[in-house]
């Protein structure tokens, strides 16, 4: 029935102030007001329609994305939107586009690695979109191993230019988003060579296409790399291939904040660490963590609303069948994902703070927190994107057969989201970076250097190696210090075990390769500890609103105890807890799920997503699922005619032939 709220009875069960929770989720009343206004602006404008993407061919799909990008910019200018508003608008348009790489990587690369003069020259052009840029680092042969890139950038002192060249097939740039068809410029990463000497990988601003006719400039071969996973999905993006044949650029187009080449061809390093060349990746990894909570919450919102609508089995005495959300198995799969969405939101907030703090320090030439920023962004990017990808797929299964329909919104969400496990650093490669940081921290413990930040607990390693959990009854697991103690002990013990094993190798690099699986597990344990501890920290803040803080405490306990249960082998084998304490944690989890149950719909309503943004019949706010699914089926192009194209041509003759054969 149109206009009826089929989930009203669920909404009435909520025991907390949903509007207050919306503010906590958004980050502030101001952020909620902006996101609410921007999401409604997009939802009410037919130009941003997106329900037909899965049906469109690549060319039409891509053309549509270009139209939306140009229209979005027009609206941003007409409405004089602030950067915050524009950024929200972009996320509600909800379509990967070349603009993501322009604003998300090209502009930050110039900001982070350019000198004052370079910022003055290039930023206004980029910010007014008079040029469009992308981030061309990855090559056909190397993505993870940035030091292995093959593109050469050789200084020619005769002309005061760099000559960029792709010496092999594998040195072709491969993957950069926005490169394939649209970018006029790129920040290109290649090996800097002066006077025959290789100085490793550096970034350069390179014009690729003419600003007059958009044709590739001489010496440049460029195009799209082809269709990717899923219909619609990431195919709105023109990931590209690019080859250089001795292309010349002026010397001042090398990004020279970290190091520079003089007119005479001398290579000069500044006091800034070499790793700042990787700074754009740190920035984007940080944004990816916040985006993980958005993607996961979206899937969870769909699965939760549908689980309240869907009924199977259990009709007794004239009562309706049971809502599937009441099955304990459904709760045990769904509610940890709901808790994870909130956990990732808060760790994302914290990471943004950490990143801003590092940037402020860098301005003052304080580079001391760079390793911590690298390890946290790498580790949390890895942890949250893997969990979110798996979580979206779990939400699809939680919706049964209907979850497999494109109109559930889940297949496309998964297809768009899953490459986050690979781009901006393969998730295993990034966890190995965290492991290096942990091993270095442990190796420095004896030197009197006190570990700080997220590895501060390593300073108490001796105590953590001995500690025993004092949990005696299930409710004891609600105590944040019991949870933190167990997670710290597990993380410390796994890292120390790796460090001990590593010390048995005469060649540490060999040892690192041999033990890499254990190191990844240690890094994961450390990252889970960060998420748990930042959730607990969040709960130390003043959180207004009836029942809001109490529910967040429930979600925090679910996040922690679910992982304790899932990784029980870790906690038991490192001796941090006993098997009895493990089963008490599981008892407590069941009780926590019961506390979430009446509040489940309220908790997903607090995300404040419009139906346009969710783009899911199963996740509709009003829960009016069946009539809309039925209506939607008839919109499929296959149903435009009763007899499909191809039937007369192929099937009719086949049927006739078979009938003839039968009569013979
Ligand atoms: C008109 C007005 C309009 C206004 C409109 C406004 C609109 C606003 C809209 C906003 C839109 C914003 C959109 C944002 C969305 C962005 C979407 C982006 C989509 C992303 C697409 C994907 C892009 C990519 O994938 S780019 C390519 C990414 N590639 C990788 O990640 C490669 C991974 N590999 C590596 O990072 C490295 O090679 C690594 C780290 C694995 C190994 O490197 P290396 O071999 O050099 O290092 P090591 O020897 O291991 O270590 C040396 C040393 O360095 C330290 N270190 C390594 N990395 C870093 C680092 N990044 N930072 C700091 N330190 C680092 C390492 O720890 C070692 O330290 P030691 O102390 O020496 O041990
Ligand atoms: C959708 C999408 C968009 C992208 N956009 C851009 C872009 O805009 N600009 C850009 O420059 N790049 C972009 N990329 C490239 C992306 O950054 C790389 O694909 C990514 O960094 C992974 O590198 P790779 O492909 O070389 O993977 P590989 O390193 O080849 O990974 C293959 C396998 O090897 C394993 N492996 C690799 N090294 C190690 C190791 N040391 N130890 C253990 N296991 C290892 C990995 O875990 C993985 O299982 C994009 C990629 C995708 C999919």
TrEMBL record:
Binding site for FAD: 138, 177
Keyword Lipid metabolism assigned: yes
Enzyme active site: 424
Molecular function terms from GO: acyl-CoA oxidase activity; FAD binding; fatty acid binding
Family to which this protein belongs: Belongs to the acyl-CoA oxidase family.
Cofactor: FAD
Keyword entries, A-Z: FAD, Fatty acid metabolism, Flavoprotein, Lipid metabolism, Oxidoreductase, Peroxisome
Gene Ontology cellular component list: peroxisome
GO biological process, one term: fatty acid beta-oxidation using acyl-CoA oxidase
Cross-referenced SUPFAM superfamilies: Acyl-CoA dehydrogenase C-terminal domain-like, Acyl-CoA dehydrogenase NM domain-like
Residues covered by the Acyl-CoA oxidase C-alpha1 domain: 278-439
Protein name per the record: Acyl-coenzyme A oxidase
Organism: Vicia faba
Lineage: Eukaryota, Viridiplantae, Streptophyta, Embryophyta, Tracheophyta
Domain Acyl-CoA oxidase C-terminal, first and last residues per copy: 479-656
Record's subcellular location: Peroxisome
InterPro entries tied to this protein: ACOX_C_alpha1 (IPR055060), Acyl-CoA_ox_N (IPR029320), Acyl-CoA_Oxase/DH_mid-dom_sf (IPR046373), Acyl-CoA_oxidase (IPR012258), Acyl-CoA_oxidase_C (IPR002655), AcylCo_DH-like_C (IPR036250), AcylCoA_DH/ox_N_sf (IPR037069), AcylCoA_DH/oxidase_NM_dom_sf (IPR009100)
Domain (Acyl-coenzyme A oxidase N-terminal): residue spans on this chain: 17-132
Record-linked PANTHER family: ELECTRON TRANSPORT OXIDOREDUCTASE (PTHR10909), PEROXISOMAL ACYL-COENZYME A OXIDASE 1 (PTHR10909:SF250)
């Amino acid at each position: 029935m149109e206009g009826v709220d089929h989930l009203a009875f669920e909404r009435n069960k909520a025991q907390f102030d949903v509007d207050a929770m919306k503010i906590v989720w958004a980050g502030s009343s101001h952020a909620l007001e902006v996101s609410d206004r921007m999401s409604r602006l997009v939802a009410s404008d037919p130009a941003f329609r997106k329900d037909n993407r899965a049906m469109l061919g690549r060319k039409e799909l891509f053309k549509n994305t270009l139209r939306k990008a140009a229209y979005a910019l027009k609206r941003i200018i007409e409405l004089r939107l602030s950067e915050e508003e524009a950024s929200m608008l972009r996320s509600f348009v909800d379509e990967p586009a070349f603009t993501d790489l322009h604003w998300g990587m090209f502009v930050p690369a110039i900001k982070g690695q350019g000198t004052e003069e370079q910022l003055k020259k290039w930023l206004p052009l980029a910010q007014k979109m008079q040029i469009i840029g992308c981030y061309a680092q990855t090559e056909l042969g190397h993505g993870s191993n940035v030091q292995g890139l093959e593109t050469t950038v050789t200084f020619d002192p005769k002309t005061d230019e760099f000559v960029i060249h792709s010496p092999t097939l594998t040195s072709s740039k491969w993957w950069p988003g926005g490169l394939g068809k649209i970018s006029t410029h790129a920040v290109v990463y290649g090996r800097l060579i002066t006077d025959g000497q290789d100085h490793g990988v550096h970034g350069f601003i390179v014009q690729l296409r003419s600003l007059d006719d958009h044709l590739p400039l001489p010496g440049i071969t460029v195009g799209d790399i082809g269709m990717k996973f899923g219909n619609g999905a990431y195919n709105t993006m023109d990931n590209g291939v690019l080859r250089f044949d001795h292309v010349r650029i002026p010397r001042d187009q090398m990004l020279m904040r970290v190091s520079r080449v003089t007119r005479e061809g001398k290579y000069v390093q500044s006091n800034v660490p070499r790793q700042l060349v990787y700074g754009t990746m740190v920035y984007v990894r940080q944004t990816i963590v916040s985006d993980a909570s958005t993607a996961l919450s979206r899937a969870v919102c769909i699965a939760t609303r549908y689980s309240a609508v869907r009924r199977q089995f259990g009709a007794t005495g004239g009562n309706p069948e049971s809502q599937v959300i009441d099955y304990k198995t459904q709760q045990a799969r769904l509610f940890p994902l709901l808790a994870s969405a909130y956990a990732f939101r808060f760790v994302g907030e914290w990471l943004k703070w950490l990143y801003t703090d590092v940037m402020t320090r860098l301005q003052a030439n304080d580079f001391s927190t760079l390793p911590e920023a690298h390890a946290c962004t790498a580790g949390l990017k890895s942890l949250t994107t893997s969990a979110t990808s798996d979580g979206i797929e779990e939400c699809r299964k939680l919706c049964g057969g209907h979850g497999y329909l494109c109109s559930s919104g889940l297949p496309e969400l998964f297809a768009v989201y899953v490459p986050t496990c690979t781009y901006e650093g393969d998730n295993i490669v990034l966890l190995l970076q965290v492991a290096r940081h942990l091993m270095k921290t442990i190796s420095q413990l004896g030197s009197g250097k006190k570990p700080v930040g997220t590895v501060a607990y390593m300073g108490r390693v001796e105590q953590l190696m001995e500690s025993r959990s004092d949990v005696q009854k299930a409710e004891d697991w609600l105590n944040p210090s019991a949870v933190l103690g167990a997670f710290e002990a597990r993380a410390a013990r796994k890292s120390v075990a790796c460090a001990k094993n590593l010390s048995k190798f005469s060649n540490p690099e060999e040892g690192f390769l041999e033990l890499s699986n254990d190191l990844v597990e240690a890094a994961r344990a450390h990252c889970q500890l960060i998420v748990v501890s930042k959730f607990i920290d969040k709960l130390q803040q003043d959180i207004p609103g009836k029942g809001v803080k109490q529910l967040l405490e429930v979600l925090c306990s679910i996040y922690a105890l679910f992982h304790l249960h899932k990784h029980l082998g870790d906690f038991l084998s490192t001796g941090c807890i006993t098997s009895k304490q493990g089963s008490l944690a599981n008892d407590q989890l069941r009780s926590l799920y019961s506390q979430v149950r009446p509040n489940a719909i309220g908790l997903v309503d607090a995300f404040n997503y419009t139906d346009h943004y969710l783009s899911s019949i199963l996740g509709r706010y009003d829960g009016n699922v069946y009539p809309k699914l039925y209506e939607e089926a008839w919109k499929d192009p296959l149903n435009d005619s009763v007899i499909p194209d191809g039937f007369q041509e192929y099937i009719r003759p086949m049927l006739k032939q078979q009938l003839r054969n039968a009569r013979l």
